[in-house]
Structures are given as C-alpha cells and as structure tokens.
Amino acid sequence: LVDVNVHPTKREVRLQNEGRFFDAVQHACWTALQESAPSALAPLGSRAPALGPTIEARAEALPGFDSAGLPPFSPRPASSPPEADPQLREAAHWRYLGQAHNRYLVVETGAGLAVLDQHAAHEKVLYGRYLARLASNAAPALPAQGLLAPLLVEVPPALLEALEDAGGAMAQLGFEVEAFGVGTLRCSALPIGLPISAVEATAIDILSSWQERGATESGRRHRVAASLACHSAVRFGDPMDPSEVVALLQDLAGTEGGITCPHGRPTVLLISESELLAAFDRR
Fold first, then answer.
1. Where are the domains of the chain?
2. With left for phi above 0 and alpha for psi between -120 and 50, is residue 275 left, alpha or beta?
3. pLDDT of 228-266, one tens digit each?
4. Element containing residue 184 per DSSP (H, E)
C-alpha cells in the first residue's frame, strides 16, 4: 500500500513495505547491469594523465555536505575577459610551491613570492561568481545537490515572511526551500559545497537581508553573495589538493575588486625579490 497524503504538495509518499520495494528496485538494477555490455576502454595512450581528484569530483563526493569543498570551476569565455586586479592578474601563471599549516598557499611569482590566505582567496572567487549570478537573474540556477532526506532548518518566525521575496534569489543560488510550519524551513536541495552545519546561518543571513528596511537591491545581493561565499569556501585549516590550488589560482586571476575578500580581509601577501634580498642582507 502507498500513502500519498504525507506531503501537502504530493512530493513524497510513504510505502507500507519499504524494504520489499527497495529489494525489487535493487534487483532490477543489478539485472540490467549484468545484461548490459561493458563500455570499451580508450587506448592507454589517449587517456589524460591523472593528477589527483579535480575540484568538481571532490565537491560532488562530499559525504553529507559536512565539509567545505570547492564548487566546480567554470572557465570564463575568452571573448569577454573580466577586469582583473593588476596584482592578481598573473595568478594563473604563478607556480604553486606548497601549503603551510593547512592555512596558507605559498607560490612563486614572476617578481618574487606570494602567500595566500586559502579561505579568503576562495571566498573572493565564490563571491564574484555568486554576485554575478544574482545580478544577471540567469537561469538555470547554480549547481545544486538534492538531499535524500529533506533538511528542516529552524529560523525566527518573523523571517519567514521574507521567504516570498527572497525565494527567487535562493533558487538561483541552488537552494530549494519552502516554509514548513512556524519557524521552520524545509530544504530539499542545497548549493554544492555548502556544509550542512552552515545552512541555518546562511538561510538566516539571506532572509534577513530581504527583510532589512531601506536596503538597496545591490546591497542585498552583496550580503547574500558574501554570506554564501564565506560559508562555502574552503576552511582556514583544511588540506588542499594541488589540483584544487591550481584551479583556485586560475579563478583568482579573473576576480575584480582589489585583493581583499568581501569582508575586507587581504587574500594575498606579495613579497618582491628585492625585499627577499634585503631581508637576507644580499644587497
């Protein structure tokens, strides 16, 4: 038997014999896989060398979304390059040397060395990406991950009044939410890379920005993009794969707005070769 009245919009049903249903689906899948012919492998020489997990793969493989992975890198069209900050324009050509204390990225530049705050740098990249999406009202929304079990998030009841106005922006960023009783949001999908632990704070930030009196549209977009970027960026203290760092540097080279993150924290410390020579009494 199937109970179709467990959800007001009929998006969920309850099965009386859930285990038997699962077994039937599993058996059908295994049968189909066993009867299908395996795909031919490409010749060894034609395969691209594996340099470790890509950002896309790592982000999609986040268990339960309870860690801060990197959202997929989207190359920008060469025909319309962004106005990059002069100090960061060459970041795509910097040579990555290593990670210090799981907090700082050390790179060799054409003029010396640079040390990056990994969280602030990634936050700056994500902020630009989210802000551009909100400003363009583009569809489809940013990549999202549907949740196997919907997440119930408690928010101040007064903030739910802003959901009708903020819902469009949340959908563009990858949220799928609806009011679920008094003071509760029901989340069916989240932006890729946003940890479960940060959903409540991010949702409250977004709803608060739409409820704020006198706030401008651009001010709301800035606050929403900054909040989501901060909560989704790689943590200050997380290890990073070299392939992730290379992709981050490529993205950073195309960012605008100086060298700071949206909260005003510097993203990079540049040290010229002349400063190094002077520090070691080589001049």
1. 2-35, 55-128+236-279, 138-222
2. alpha
3. 999 999 999 999 999 999 999 999 999 988 899 999 999
4. strand 184-191
Q: What is the pLDDT of residue 181?
A: 85
Instruction: List for the chain the helix, strand, coil content (%; round to 5).
Output: 40, 20, 40
The predicted-structure confidence for 3-52, as pLDDT tens digits, reads as follows 655 555 555 666 666 556 655 675 576 566 555 544 443 443 443 343 34
Superfamily of domain 138-222: MutL, C-terminal domain, regulatory subdomain (3.30.1370.100)
C-alpha triplet 267, 265, 257: angle, nearest 5° = 70
Peptide bond into 140 cis (omega under 30): yes
Query: In sequence order, what DSSP letters do the residues of 222-283 get, joined into one string?
Result: HHHHHHHHHHHSPPTT----HHHHHHHHHHHTT--STTB-TTS-B-EEEEEHHHHHHHTT--
Cα 167 to Cα 189: distance, rounded to the nearest angstrom: 13
Calpha distance 2→156 (Å, rounded): 35
CATH 2.40.50.140 fits 55-128+236-279, yes or no: no
> Hey, what are 200's tokens?
């409540």
Compute CA distances 78 → 24, 75, 82, whole Å: 50, 9, 9
Q: Using DSSP, state whether 68 is helix, strand or coil.
A: coil
Average pLDDT over residues 125-139: 83
